[in-house]
Each structure stands twice: as C-alpha cells, then as structure tokens.
Design brief:
Elements (H helix, E strand, L loop, with lengths): L2 E5 L2 E3 L5 E8 L8 E6 L6 E6 L5 E3 L7 E6 L4 E6 L8 E7 L2 E2 L3 E5 L2
Parallel strand pairs: 2-11
Antiparallel strand pairs: 1-3, 3-8, 4-5, 4-9, 5-6, 7-8, 9-10, 9-11
C-alpha cells in the first residue's frame, strides 16, 4: 500500500522560502516518477514539478527558476524547495505517484 506524507508547509512572507517534504512508503521513489501538485482555493489542482527515475526534472512555467524538486533515495523522500515565494503560490501542496496522493500541506504566502 502506497502512503505519502507531506510536511513543511506554513506561513511565509513574500520573497521567503520553504522546503516541503514527501515521505513515501510502499513505493521506492528512486524508480518512480514523483510529482508535486497544488490546489489554491476555488481552483483546480495543478501540476507543479516532477522528478523521473532518471533524475530528469520538469516544472510548471509558473514556478520555473524558483522551485527545485529533488529526492533522497536513502530516506525515500522527495523534496520541493520553494524560493522567492509569491502570494499566488498560496495553496495546498500534494505529493503524488501513480495516482496516489498524500493529505497535503498548506502553504500560505502573505505579509
């Protein structure tokens, strides 16, 4: 059974940084494509970033150059480093693999 547990969200001022973590069990992150998605209030869930088994990374245009996805194979955990945060980055952030989802972690960017 796949379980994904996100953490690291919180309240941050515009221009600040946060690092989200996604601890996985029941699946090996290094051999699967792991993704981060987000859902803002009143909006549909949208793609943020993905890391393939090869290590190749992909990003939504809205976060390119500001966010970095990575993984720690020893900890079986995927990370999302978010820099230069903007109010429009406010959302619940979800980790996903093979249509399995975590419970999400809230990120709020506000002064």
């Amino acid at each position: 059974q796949v379980q994904l547990v996100e953490s690291g969200g919180g309240l941050v001022q515009p221009g600040g940084s946060l690092r989200l973590s996604c601890a996985a069990s029941g699946i090996i992150v290094s051999v699967n494509a792991m993704g981060w998605y987000r859902q803002a209030p009143g909006k549909q869930r949208e793609f943020v970033a993905r890391i393939l088994s090869s290590g190749t990374t992909m990003y939504a245009d809205a976060v390119k150059g500001r966010f970095t996805i990575s993984r720690d194979n020893n900890k079986n955990t995927v990370y999302l480093q978010m820099n230069s945060l903007k109010p429009e980055d406010t959302a619940v952030y979800y980790c996903s693999v093979w249509n399995n989802w975590g419970q999400g972690t809230q990120v709020t960017v506000s002064s």
